[in-house]
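Known limitations

Files may contain more than one protein. Parsers should not assume a single record per file. Below, a two-record file is shown to illustrate correct handling: read the sequence, read the token line, then continue until end of file.
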Amino acid sequence: MTDWGVVFRACTDRLVKLGSSLTEEQLATTVPATPSWTAREVLAHLAGGPSSILAGDADDAPSPAWTERHVTARADTPVAELLAEVGATVDPVCAMLADGGRPIIVWDRSVHLADLHEAFGLSRPAADTWEPVVEAVRPRLARILGDADAPAYELFRGYFSRRSQRQLRDLFPGASAEQLADVGVFGPREDDQPHPAEG
């Protein structure tokens, strides 16, 4: 049984460290695979998502309108305050997860941490921030792709629609177009996405 609180803390620790290191130029960088968000806006969403869930504002989660509220409400919030909000929700989110809460908020943090790494050409995040997620979604991927194999990190990125159909064809050359279109939980995409740096 995965301890999603441990994964959430690991993601948060890496997120705060990365967010604290970004320059103003980097914060203004558009992050691929997001709704054309800048890195600052990704941090705003990652601050707002847990706060919204803990406040009971999640009826329309994870719709575009729900995520956009996080970004809009924090448009003028300094990065230090965004990261403080990111950190402040860790204990209550972990308590919620321990009580049987769904781990979607953990997966969201994991995916966007990887988005930021790829946007800045960094190596992929530490395995403890994403390996438990890909293990959790393997049954669905197996139903779609059968016994097709690929590197675990690429399965993680593909599942969350972070790889284009062309990139997925390279990963799964034996899969049909219909199978590949079903891989991404947010639907197929046609724009190639960056890969993490080697190392």
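...continuing to the second record:
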Amino acid sequence: MITRFLTDVRVKFNPFSPRSKPARLFLSLIPPNARADGMKVETQMLPRTSKEPSTLGVKFKDGKEMNLDLDKMRITEVMEEVDRHSRLLARKEELTGN
């Protein structure tokens, strides 16, 4: 997963729910030095009895924001969505020569 274009990650999930697996896996894919490199990572743990769906909010360097409902998605689909825009930003960066 391409994380160098992410500036802000917000995850809300119930850690005891089996449907929160994509949220947990996404957090595990973020590199350990991401916060030191300027990425803001916010996690909100919901109580065990919560029926609220797991959500993921991602903000990119170009200002685009993605809000994904993780209850209806698999981790591969989440990675595809995030990587699609990251590859577009990488291509733009490559073409401008930065």
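Parsers that stop after the first record will miss the second one. For reference, the second record is described as follows. Helices lie at 21-29, 75-96.
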